[in-house]
């Protein structure tokens, strides 16, 4: 029941952790804001109205017990707050950092609707779990009694890691296969450190390794083994590869030197942050230093690219997006952060061609206007007549989103069913693909989405796999 430590949204104003000055933070890849001091975390948690219908929890894909752990934090019961936060999420401190709270929990906070400013849920969640790591409250992954069955997980992103953790807790032998040399997927190589410092991801991975999950890093399904071989090796498989195929732009000059893919660009930058040798960065191909940079796209990946270019010392950074600010898919907070750091947004604009003989020297674009709504309900952009323009560019980053790779071909598994978008087709009740014992979760099923949805999918699919494997074990005992 609420006490005098909560319901303070009228007397206490919303106060996020202070950001470092734009000039200071643009010089490094550290997160742009420090976390709360304990007194401030308790104060801001106490703004929660403890409403009867917590829309924050309803709109959280994980349905976290947000009002309850806010109340516990306000009362100074931090360990209990952490335990409740951790009960529904395998990565609460990661969600606290990179979830678009403005579109999810905080965007649906009751006191936000009342004009008092949302509770700073994400910042409190980050504070709780970071404190738990420091205080030793984060318990090791303890596997359940061994069941004598093994599970293979293809992909070490958030869906794969979440599913692997739950299956190990249930007592299964778990092997994770990933094409990269470090686990974490886009959390490791796609999201820049100023949003998610890499130590935060690596300590989660190390905890899973310490709990007995076996990681096969640098292992590419389709090269090192086919799907059929892994099916023989394990009692069940989880495909959680994510979607990595970049959406294409069809325009003259698209193959010019200096026109690069967003993920190649971000991966090179993140590898440098790990201290790796990255030839494509060091020879300037994937390095924005001293260049006029143009990023094409308006999603969160585009925001990651423009803000990375600023930190690499670009001469100028422009973002071209075909719709207006109100209709962009990326987080409005990220747009604001980018603008603070000197990024120029060219709204209602689209590239038509990329100038330059061999190396790109500029982007020729056209102005756009929003016409009639398309099938999704969004107003479709259409070109304005005679509105061409050119912007200088030494480096163009294509950040138009991602699609599914052709997994049936890549995995030599033609019987693996896909949708018309190339994502894996699953039974909605069982989360199993068209192949018996092969499950799928995360972006490879739902398309490019949020980390928090991938974590949710990993949690859900573990329940389905567990039911399947229990039945399989019963049948094996009967046959014996």
From TrEMBL:
Q: Which UniProt keywords apply?
A: 4Fe-4S, Iron, Iron-sulfur, Metal-binding, Oxidoreductase
Pfam families (UniProt xref): Fer4_20, Pyr_redox_2
The answer to whether keyword Transport applies is: no
Domain Dihydroprymidine dehydrogenase residues, every copy: 26-136
Q: Does the keyword Aminoacyl-tRNA synthetase apply?
A: no
The protein's matches in InterPro entries, at most eight in alphabetical order, are given as: DPD_II, FAD/NAD-bd_sf, FAD/NAD-binding_dom, GltD-like, Helical_ferredxn
The residues covered by the FAD/NAD(P)-binding domain are: 151-458
Its protein name is: NAD(P)-dependent oxidoreductase
**Species, as recorded:** Stakelama saccharophila
Q: What is the lineage of its organism?
A: Bacteria, Pseudomonadati, Pseudomonadota, Alphaproteobacteria, Sphingomonadales
């Amino acid at each position: 029941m609420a006490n005098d430590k909560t319901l303070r949204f009228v007397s206490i104003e919303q106060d996020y952790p202070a950001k470092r000055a734009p000039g200071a933070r643009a010089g490094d890849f550290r997160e742009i804001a420090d976390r709360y001091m304990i007194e401030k975390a308790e104060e801001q948690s106490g703004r929660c109205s403890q409403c009867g219908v917590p829309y924050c929890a309803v709109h959280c894909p994980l349905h976290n017990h947000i009002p309850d752990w806010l109340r516990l934090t306000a009362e100074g019961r931090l360990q209990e707050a952490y335990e409740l936060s951790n009960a529904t999420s395998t990565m609460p401190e990661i969600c606290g950092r990179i979830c678009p709270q403005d579109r999810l929990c905080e965007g649906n906070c009751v006191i936000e609707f009342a004009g008092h400013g949302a509770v700073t849920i994400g910042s409190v969640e980050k504070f709780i779990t970071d404190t738990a790591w420091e205080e030793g409250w984060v318990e090791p992954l303890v596997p359940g009694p061994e069941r004598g069955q093994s599970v293979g997980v293809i992909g070490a992103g958030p869906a794969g890691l979440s599913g692997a953790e739950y299956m190990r807790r249930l007592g299964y032998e778990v092997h994770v296969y990933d094409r990269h040399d470090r686990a974490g997927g886009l959390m490791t190589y796609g999201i820049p450190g100023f949003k998610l410092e890499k130590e935060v991801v690596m300590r989660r991975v190390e905890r899973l390794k310490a709990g007995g999950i076996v990681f096969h890093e640098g292992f590419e399904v389709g090269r090192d083994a086919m799907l059929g071989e892994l099916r023989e090796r394990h009692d069940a498989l989880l495909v959680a590869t994510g979607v990595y195929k970049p959406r294409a732009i069809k325009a003259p000059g698209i193959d010019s030197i200096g026109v690069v893919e967003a993920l190649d660009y971000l991966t090179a930058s993140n590898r440098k942050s790990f201290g790796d040798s990255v030839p494509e960065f060091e020879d300037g191909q994937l390095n924005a230093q001293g260049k006029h940079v143009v990023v094409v796209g308006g999603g969160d990946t585009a925001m990651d690219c423009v803000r990375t270019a600023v930190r690499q010392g670009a001469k100028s950074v422009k973002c071209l997006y075909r719709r207006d600010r109100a209709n962009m898919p990326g987080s409005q907070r990220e747009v604001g952060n980018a603008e603070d750091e000197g990024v120029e947004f060219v709204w209602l604009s689209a590239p038509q061609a990329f100038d330059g003989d061999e190396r790109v020297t500029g982007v020729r674009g056209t102005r756009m206007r929003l016409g009639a709504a398309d099938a999704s309900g969004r107003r479709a952009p259409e070109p304005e007549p005679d509105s061409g323009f050119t912007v200088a560019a030494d480096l163009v980053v294509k950040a138009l989103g991602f699609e599914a790779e052709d997994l049936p071909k890549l995995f030599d598994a033609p019987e693996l069913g896909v949708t018309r978008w190339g994502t894996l087709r699953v039974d909605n009740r069982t989360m199993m693909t068209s192949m018996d014992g092969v499950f799928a979760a995360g972006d490879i099923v739902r398309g490019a989405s949020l980390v928090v949805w991938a974590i949710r999918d990993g949690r859900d699919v573990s329940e389905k796999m567990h039911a399947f494997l229990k039945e399989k074990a019963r049948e094996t005992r009967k046959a014996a």
